Each structure stands twice: as structure tokens, then as C-alpha cells.
Amino acid sequence: MNGLLVRDIHKTFGSTTALDRVSFDLEEGQILSVLGPSGCGKSTLLHIIAGLVPPDRGTITWQGQDLASIPAHKRNFGLMFQEFALFPHMDVSENVAFGLRMQSMQPAQIEQRTREVLELVGLSAFGSRNVDTLSGGERQRVALARSLAPQPGLLMLDEPFGALDRTLRERLMLQLPEILHSMNQTAIYVTHDQEEAFAVAARVVIMHAGRIAQVGTPEEIYCAPASLFVARFLGLSNLLPVSKPADLKRGEVQTPIGRFSVGREVGEGATLLLRPDQVRLGGPGPTVLEGRVIQRSFRGGTQRLKVDVEGTELIFDFMTGTALPDPGDHVNLSFDPQQALQVLA
Amino acid sequence: MERDRSPIINGQPGGSVGETNRDGRTSILFALWLLPLLFLGLFYFYPLLKITALSFVRAEGSPLASTLSTLSAPRTRAVLWFTTWQAALSTIITLLIGLPGAYLFARHRFRGKQFLRALTSIPFVLPTLVVAAAFNALLGPRGWINLGMMALFDLNQPPVQFTNSIIAILVAHVFYNTTIVLRMVGDFWARLDPHLGDAAVMLGANRWQVLRKITIPLLSPAIAAAALLVFIFDFTSFGVILILGGPKFATLEVEIYYQTIGLFNLPTAATLAMLQLVCTLVLTIVYTRMSARLSRPLKIHSREITQRTPTSRTQKAAVALNVILLVTLLVTPLLGLTMRSFTRFGTAPRGQQVEQGFTLKNYTELNENPQGSLFFVTPAAAIRNSLVYAGATVLLAIMIGLPAAWALAREQGARINRWLDPLLMLPLGTSAVTLGLGFIVALDSPPLNLRASPVLVPIAHTLVAFPFVVRSLTPALRSIQPRLRQAAATLGASPWHVFLTIDLPLIGRALLVAGVFAFTISMGEFGATALVARPEFPTIPVAMYRFLSRPGAINFGQAMALSTILMAVTAGGMLLIERFRVADIGEF
């Protein structure tokens, strides 16, 4: 295969395991997101791929070549650092031209390429500006231009929007994939923010405590989280512990809010996810819950109800515009178990 | 209601109220400045003026002609030339040894690092006389190396000629000032974003290119500032040259001392002092400009992410080599000094038998007068004198320094403060010997006839300590913002509690640091003391100088013992300061 092959990477720092048997592939021209909470090993993974940190075990192959013996500065990979790491003693153009100068390019070509890349990120007029005078968003774009200028085979971005405010982040989140796709750039995008990960990449790797928890498209991951950790990390609520009393029928599970048929055997200690967005108000439906509204809140595109069912608080989301009951009211909720229920190991 | 609240919301009191307030504040500022300015005027500017007058006005001929003849004398030119090139050479060697050490401290994590860091900070705070004595203990005619070689090869004369050589001066200067490079460059380096280097690597730069294009350009302000400070210290070096260099070598500072004490040629000394003053002032101004550049907006990074534990064998070897070099250079002389103070070798001047080998006598005999000489002052008396002077210096320095620091902290932008702030730092750029000379020429005639008074010593020490005291008090006083008091009050603290739990701990720590600064500076000060101390009331450094310039094993041993005591006091004081300091280190 022609892209990036990461196989069985293992890394420990002292007594802590940073990466444990991490493997994945990335085709050329594709963008991959690596998503996980801070401290899950994502940055270490990037630094190992970049060649800044050696792995304890495992191999990394790029375009069929094993990278073990190739030092970082000869891999022709780009890495955009969390806080951009712009060189403070150089102006914007000099920052962008640094990688080109390292390739011993002709001055005229360097100048031309620098101008091109600055234009691409919308900073044509900023060439001679001091990097201290730039805003957060401008710095981010200079860092992107600097990593793109030498045309790296693989571009890695480490939390590139971490330091920016929300509105700016949302705008850049839309621009970045556009720029990368226009250059057919192979890229790995590391973030702890699921919205970013889903918006930027077609494929997402979720990491947890140094291991890969799930790989898939954003839809696959969101609709079918592979584990309790993934469901929690994605912010899915209504995670119900499962127990197995003696009189349980085949294919049923017992939860604090009642028995449900899930059509298969479930082990003790599993968790049942009742998806908050797959529930309708009122009956009748295939399965009905009865409860009392505790709180109602408006969240923009959706509205949220907190409902007490048999002493357990559950959360449900409805489209804005749906008429909702008031706190204290009694409600019936119905759902299709096929769509709304999912067993997590 | 609405109208009443607006001035409070805007944070600015209304028109007429503000006027009276500002007047009130200004008069408080003036009141605070009164004592410090009076003190500086009387004991700093007035003596300097007298020196200036003395250097220009002579009995015969046109006033300028004789000044010019002193300045153009071959002797003066030779002294200035020597002063300059030994300082330049010392600075270069200090950088060559300090920079790898700075890298070691900035980028590596290894066992015993904190200890080594504390250890390497000791030389800088040691009094020059202790440094000179330490090298004497290691490499002098009675030092360990010579004693060892004499015993080993059965020699009658010490084979290594270290003292009275330029090598001795250079080595002592490097020993003294390497800490400055370690601290100033090392601290700056430790906070440089290591990702800058990684970013350059990712853009295709190899290790050498990273060093040349990224690291060195970014470090250059810190390197330049450290080099300049080292140069200033080497340029005004006094004790090291006097003791280790011997009569062959004279810097401007030493020449002023000789001209004053030896030849009592005050006009020539005054002219040289003027020359020295101009040089150090120019250097200090350049240094202040440079260190201001150090605070350019670089992102500060926690040490945790900037440092790595060495892993590969070459890395470990490099770290080990570096540590060994630093320990050899900075710790052996101190160790040699301490050990030498517990031993006696050789003979007494009149050929009496002297106990050989390990002994506590250097310490137990500190209170004795072996020759029964009338003018002999026992070392114990010198210790007592030093303690009294140091105590007086602490009181005086805080009395003068606290109001000045308070004024500076209250109104950072006030015009009076902007003018006076640099003025306070002037004594820092004035050599101690010049201060001493100033006292001799200015304070020996009515209305201020203090020449016979021992009061001059703590006053001189206060001048030297004053900038340090102000520098350590001001940031602490600034850190007590009204917000803190308000926060404490909203959490239910009574005004008394607020004072007890907020103000007092913050000021108390700073006062402790300032006091210890004043104390250690006073204990170790030699340049000014050598000129103004009454012969019957010597301080520890003055007594050490006397013992070192006399022959015999007993004198040498007692100098070692005094030196070790002084080393322990100053090192202990410095460790206390490090522990309680509010402002950041690296600003000397």
C-alpha cells in the first residue's frame, strides 16, 4: 500500500505506557482524525510518526519504505504544533520560507512559493509582519502556511485550533479541509474535540489510554459506539447498568427503568445505551416509558428534557418547535428498541 | 442612583475629588522619597562630587592639564589596557565553560540536578576574598596541589606557581562568574519553547542548522546580557587581583586602592576613579538596556515540557562530562578551602614547631593573640565587628530601602518614580573602592567629619546593599494589590485578619530576603571596607587579607578558618534567599 502504515507501535515513559499496540492505515490524499481526551497518547503518536521521538516497538511505513532509519528532518513530513511554534525572531515570510531554505531552493523560487502559500491561507499582505503582532487566527494560518510550503508528503496537525476562540474555530474548521483537499494533502488531524474531528476528516481513530478504542467514519462511530468509553466520550447520556435476575427471558435485559428486549444474550456488567435523540413524546409506540419532567432547557437547534423514570434521571433531546411539557408534568415516552437501544460491553 | 455609581464603575473618581487625591498621593510619594534621597545625596552624590572636584582641581597649573597628564600617563594607559583585556579574556572563557552548562541545566533532567544547581550558585555570592582564599587553598604555595606534590616528590619548594600569575586571575574570574552564565542563559533557555527546534527539524533543518538559525539567535539577548554583566564584574575586580594577582597586576580598581592607601595620592586616585566611573556607568546603561530586551514577549513554558531525561549513551556521557567539569571547577576550590581550614602544615614565622595534619586549632585559636602584639586584633574580634556592622547595615538598608521600594510600588507610572528608579541603581554601577575613596575625600572634614568613626563601614555597606534591597522589596510590595485585600474581605476576613494573613506574609518574606541580602553583602564586602575601616576594628575580609599577606602556617590556617566561616554564612544566606524570594531569579 502506498500511504502510511502504522503497525503495533508501543511506547512507555518510565512506568507509564503512552502507546500500546497502536496500528492504523492512512491512504494518500485522505485526512484522518485522531480523537481522544488529553493524555491519551495522541501527541506522542504524532511525534513518533514525525520521527521526533523513537518508538519502543513497532514499525512505520510510508510509501512502502520503513522509516525507522530516517531522521525527522529527512522524512519530508510537516507538523503543526499545538501553539504553532512560530519563530519569534523571524517575520511571517521568513517563517514560511524556512522549510524552503532548508531545501536549498533558489531565492526566486522561495519568494514565489512563499507568496503562493500565503495567498492560499489568505495572508498575502502579511509577509513582512512581525509574528508577535498577529492575532490567534492569523498565527494559526501562518503556521499552516509554513507547514504546507515545503509540500510535505504527510501533514500532521496537533490540536491546531486549541488556542482559538469558538467562532474563529468554527470558521477555520470549514476552511481547513477545503485547503487540504485542494492540495490533495495527506493529513493526520489530532484533537480532543469531536466536532472538529468529525468536521475535518472522513475517518476517525478514537484513542483511550494509549490504545485505539474505535476506528470508523464519523457516522459509524456516532451511531454505533464500540464501547462505554466511546459513548461517554461522545457525550451520549442515558447509560444504564444491566443486571440479570433469574426470571429473565432470552434476549431480554434488566435495567433500573425496566426490562427491554434487545434480541441477544448480554453478559453481566454490560451497559445499555438509550439514545437521547431517538425518543418520541406520548404513546403509543413499541416501547413506552412513564416519567415526570424535572427540567426543560433550550439549546438552540434542540430542546432538552430531564425526566425522572423510576428514580433514574434520563435526558432526551427534541427538535426545536416540538411542544414540550412543563417541569412537574407527567410524560409518556415511546421508542423503537431497534433504533434507540444499544448494548455496550 | 445611576449617576452616583458611574464613577465607581469606570474606576475613576469624579473630577474635583481626583485632583485632591492626586495631590495627596504625590505628597505621600515625596514624603516616602525624602529619607532615601537624603541618604543617597549625603553618602553617594556628595562624595562623588568631591572626587570629581578633586580630580579636576589641583594646587598648581591649569586644573585640566594635570588631570589630562594622569589620564595620558603610560602607567594609567597600561592599567586601563590590562583591566580591559583581562576582563575580555575572562568573559570569553566564562562563556565557553558556562554555555554548555547552561544547556545542561536548561534541557536535561538528571538525578542530583537541584543539588548541583544550588551548589553552582554558591560561588557567585561568595565574597571575593573567599574566592581568592579558596584558590590559595587549592593551588597556592600552601595549597593542596603543592603540598601533595612536595610530599610526593620530596621537594622543598612548591612546584606549581599559580598565585601571582594571570592564570590565577582568569581561573578565579571564571569560577566566580560562571554562575551568571548558568543562571541567566540557562533560565532563559529553559523557557524557550522546545517545539521551536522541533518545528525547524520538521521543516528539514538538521541539528547544526537548528543551533545556528533558531537556538543561537533566540538566545543572543540572554548571552549578550550575561556576557556584559560578567565583563562588568571582571572589569571592576578587586579582591581577586589584589590577592591572587599580587603586586605585578593592577586593574583600575586595585590602582585606585594603591594610590589611596599606599601612596596617599588622592588626586590621582580621584582621577582614576572618575575614569572607572565613566566606564562602569556606560557598561551598566548598556546592560540595563539589554536586560530589558530579555523580557520580550516570548512564550514562557513550564520546565516540565522543556526538559528531557538523557536516554542514549552519547547523551548520558555528555551530561556526565558536563557535570564533572562544573563540579571540578566550582566545587573543588570550596571543598579544598574547607578541608584546608581543618589542617596545618609547614612552619610558623619564627621557626616554632607547628602541629602537622588534621587540627581544629585554626578555629579554637581564633580568640588568641599568639605574638602578644599590641596592635593585633584577634579573628574572633573581627567576627564580632562584622556581625555588628552587618546588623547595623540590615537596619539601615531596610530603613532607607523600604520607603523607596514603597514609593516605587505605589505609583509605577508617576513621573518622579520614572526619574528616580534608575537613580537608585547607580550605586550598583559604582565600584566599591570608588565609594570608599569618596568617603575618605568627602567625609573627613566638618561639617561631616566621620573619618574617625566606625559608622562609615555600615554606611558604605548600606550603599552597596541598597539596590539589592530595593529590588527585592519592590516586586513584593507591588504584588499586594487591593484586589487581594478585597478578596480576603469578601471571604469574611476582618481588617486585622487581612493584615495578618495577606499583607504580613507577603511583606514579611520580602523583608526577610532583603535583610539577608544586606547581611551577606555586609559580611563579605571588601573593596570599600578596605579603605574606610578603622585599623582597630577590622571586618572578617579585612582580617583575612592581613593574615593572607603574612607568612607562616598559623596565619594561613586562620585565614582559611575565617574564610570558611564567611563562606558558610554567605552560602547559607543565599540559600535562604532562594527559598523565600518572591521575584524571579536571573535578575541580578
In short:
Chain A is of the alpha+beta class. Chain A has helices at residues 42-50, 92-102, 107-120, 136-148, 166-182, 194-200, 218-223, 228-233, 337-340, and strands at residues 4-13, 16-26, 31-35, 57-62, 65-66, 77-80, 154-158, 186-191, 203-208, 211-216, 239-241, 252-255, 258-261, 271-274, 279-281, 287-298, 302-309, 312-319, 330-335, 341-344.
Biggest sheet of chain B: strands, sense, closure? 2 strands, antiparallel
Total helices of chain A: the number is: 9
CATH C-level name of the largest domain in chain B: Mainly Alpha
Into how many domains do the coordinates of chain B divide? 2
Overall pLDDT level of chain A? 89
Low-confidence parts of chain A: none
Find the count of extended strands of chain B (DSSP E, 2+ residues).
4
Corresponding CATH superfamily of the largest domain in chain B: MetI-like
Beta-strand fraction estimate of chain A: 25-35%
CATH architecture of the largest domain in chain A: 3-Layer(aba) Sandwich
Element-by-element helix/strand order of chain A: EEEHEEEHHHEHEHEEHHEEEEEEEEEHE
Percent of residues in helices of chain A comes to 25-40%
Q: In sequence order, what are the helices and strands of chain B, one letter per element? A: HHHHHHHHHHHHHHHHEEHHHHEEHHHHHH
Radius of gyration of chain B: 26 Å
Biggest interface and its residues per chain?
A-B, 26 and 21 residues
* Beta-strand proportion of chain B: under 5%
